[in-house]
Design a protein that fits this description.
Elements: H1 2-8, H2 13-30, E1 33-38, E2 43-47, H3 50-54, H4 57-65, E3 70-73, E4 79-82, H5 88-109
Antiparallel strand pairs: 1-2, 2-4, 3-4
Helix pairs in contact: 2-5, 4-5
Length: 111
């Protein structure tokens, strides 16, 4: 985005949001996350299979680090749930930090 700013000026907020969403989706796919949901009322990361969570050391480390604000739901639709902060942007920041941390662990340990 820095090149765009240099050439075209400041990006509109909508474009920045689209770039950020693409970034999060890319990181999420590296962790086998199939859905990222973040609203004012709830925030979670959805997985296709329980094993996608249980067999990932990176996700285990991230869940341990964020244990005060997240929990595992290993039902038929497995997910990592986050305590809602009541504001969509705050929930989004938490999810982004979790995904970035898990990816950094995965890249270090080659999960």
């Amino acid at each position: 985005t820095n090149e765009f700013v240099t050439r075209l000026g400041k990006l509109p907020k909508e474009v920045e949001n689209l770039i950020d969403i693409a970034y999060i989706k890319n990181l999420a796919s590296n962790l086998k996350i199939t859905e990222v949901l973040c609203t004012n009322n709830q925030a979670y990361l959805q997985f296709e299979k329980r094993e996608d969570i249980m067999n990932s050391e990176a996700l285990g480390d991230a869940i341990y680090k964020f244990n005060k604000i997240c929990s595992l739901d290993l039902s038929e639709n497995p997910k990592i749930k986050f305590i809602s902060l009541g504001i969509s942007s705050s929930n989004y920041t938490t999810i982004r930090q979790f995904i970035e941390y898990a990816n950094s662990i995965k890249n270090t340990k080659k999960d």
